[in-house]
Amino acid sequence: MADQQKTGIHVVKRNGDHQEVKFDSITKRIQALCEGLDSQFVDPVPITQKVVEGFYNGISTSEIDSLAAETCAYMSQRHPDFSILAARIAVSNLHKNTVDSFSVTARALRDYKDKQGRPAALLSDEVCDFVLANAEKLDAAVVYKRDFDYDYFGFKTLEKSYLLRCDDKIVERPQHMIMRVACGIHAGDVDKAIETYDLMSRRLFTHATPTLFNAGTPKPQMSSCFLLTMKDDSIDGIYDTLKQCALISKCAGGIGVAISNVRAKGSYIRGTNGHSNGLVPMLRNFNETARYVDQGGGKRKGSFAMYLEPWHADVFDFLELRKNHGKEEQRARDLFYGLWTPDLFMQRVKDNADWTLFCPNQAYQAETGKGLMDLYGEEFEKLYLQLEKDGKGAKTVKAQSLWSRIMEAQMETGTPYMLYKDHANRKSNQKNLGTIHCSNLCTEIIEYTSPDEVAVCNLASIALSQFAPKDGGEYDFQELYRVTKVATLNLNKVIDRNYYPVEAAKRSNMRHRPVGLGVQGLADAFMIMRLPFESEPAKKLNEDIFETIYFAACEASCELAEKEGPYESYEGSPASKGQLQFDLWNVTPKSGRWDWAALKAKIAQHGLRNSLLVAPMPTASTAQILGNNESFEPYTQNLYVRRTLSGEFVTVNRHLLRDLIKQKLWTEEMRIQLIANNGSVLQLDIPSEMKELYKTVWEIKQRIVLDMAADRGAYIDQSQSLNIHMTDATTAKLSSMHFHGWQLGLKTGMYYLRTKAAADAIKFTVDVDKVKKAAVTTSGYAAAESAEKQAIEKLKAGENKYECVGCSA
After folding, report:
1. Whether residue 432 lies in the annotated active site
2. What angle do CA 130, 132, 137 make, to 5 degrees?
3. According to the model, what pLDDT value does residue 326 have?
4. Domain span including residue 378
5. In the annotation, is 542 catalytic?
6. Angle, in degrees to the nearest 10, between helices 61-75 and 44-52
7. How far apart are CA 446 and CA 460, in angstroms?
8. pLDDT(807) > 80
9. What is the pLDDT of residues 639-686, one digit of tens each?
């Protein structure tokens, strides 16, 4: 009888046959994918009814699947299981359109020809040969059912950007991509490739976006970050540096450039007997290059962060460059800006003292040729005071007037980033190489650069949520330790297998071998374990997690050094003298979980293979893929705007939604109230324990965010992408926050400043009873609908305008 429910519409099957659509066939297909989902909420029949509304004669079965997936995704605002079902339908559709053999897919990628019939291999010969030689073992290791573990929006992110295509048709499955990455890193060692595949496919960690894009391909540019110092303050030096930036940007690298050695406006030029135009016209050239050389042919604009020290005479102009108003020729809005701030400046601001600005052309030691840029700590201070005494300054201002302009720029544009030069140098394991001049695009990489060395970093992030017990047990530090060691070995391998866009980058990476391990899902781990972000147990777990990661990374690097020898520039580094990161912070590990004394003895004997190891980066897109909150950040909001072909809708933090459902509090009334409060739970009629647990970053004291950054900082030998969120920001509040971060000893005081007004709640009233009753005057629904539209617009306005995909690990 079921088969009599026909629609009168014909569908085109994958083999080209035409067949009349049967309502119940669609229902059965959806039902088959509902295993383990909450049947109270997820009913296939209403889904099918909704899907059929979008049918037309000649629709393909693939289009039906896409329509069903979109429909379920739209319904995920009611229950997170709809998003899982949507992903299952979309994945099942992809599986029907792709081959269930990794080795066959690898061969197809290697043998691909473009539309003109020319060879255009998407997989390197070496990796393809390795796959084919081990086809049986590798094919047997692939677990395709893990593709069904992604939620819909994570899967769509993969589909849109990460899975390789031939003639615009996706040929990889998510599991194929993961195995390609594993083989790209470990070609030659099938067991290591399978170990990496297994951990990544279980979503315990992920490599960074450039590694996921490019591993195994003929040009495997797997690095995320590149740091440069302006080669020389000359036409040759500036344009050589610009060309390096262009070549790196072409290969999708994010870039940080130190420019404090470029002379200021009005400075004398001996070669022409003229005067310099200063930083602004030069930076406009970098701006246009970033726009022109996008990351891989139309993918995304290039991304450059320019770092300046606040003693530079052009610093006031520098602070204006990203502002929305003003003369166009005085702006370069596509660049990002960071201040590389010495302690002396902070001290002068604190003391309300004068501050002298210098042109780097004048500000150097005659006997050594070293400038202010090349020194830090006492040596910097000594030269700065001497230059002031000798009357070499270009201009003297009140330190606080410059400080005010910095605050003003940050409140208007979110930048410049704030990094502390002395903390970054004093606590660096690379300080034996020389003074470090800048960070990277996302402020988590602190590495030495010079005119002939471009610093590079390869990244991966560990999914902290995966080690949190679902049943109230202990956090699994042992498994975190194991996964961290594998990720460290992988990143070390990437250094050797990487394609370097410029020779200076290869030279630097081979000499110092830095890597960057980060995290995602710290806030999810707290929520799973029911620890409010501001609670003492959460603070302790934060510290314990980073101690474990640092210990495991150091141990893995030491074991590598035992086999392969320490990195080339190891001698003279703090680690070679028995000092690890926490020693440079004057901190003693508290947990008692790891035997640091034994590890230090081992390092004294064998050294380390990598100069740097830990660098928690932003994880914008990879966190979306794995279904985690970004990095170590609290949840920014409990509501998110999602976009599907069915329209835009508001979806709720899945932990909160499951909690409300479990406690039988999830009703249409609750949904409307949550939207009315812009995602805040503080005004809702729910238990106070839930209010504490689901506070957003705007409701968490930023002092605690900074304190937790310093707690973990003792185990972070690079730095961390630390965003600051401030409601009703004022100069006084912002200044106090910066000083607190500086006094804590943070290397990165602030990545972006995110601000919003306190009166940001959506102003509308809904008669909830009208909405609930069936005898509805449509005004109740209309009000709710209009409220939802307002919520969507408000949330969209508050979305981050820029997320670094390159650093996303």
Report:
1. no
2. 90
3. 76
4. 225-426
5. no
6. 120
7. 16
8. no
9. 887 776 656 777 889 999 999 999 999 988 898 888 888 889 999 999
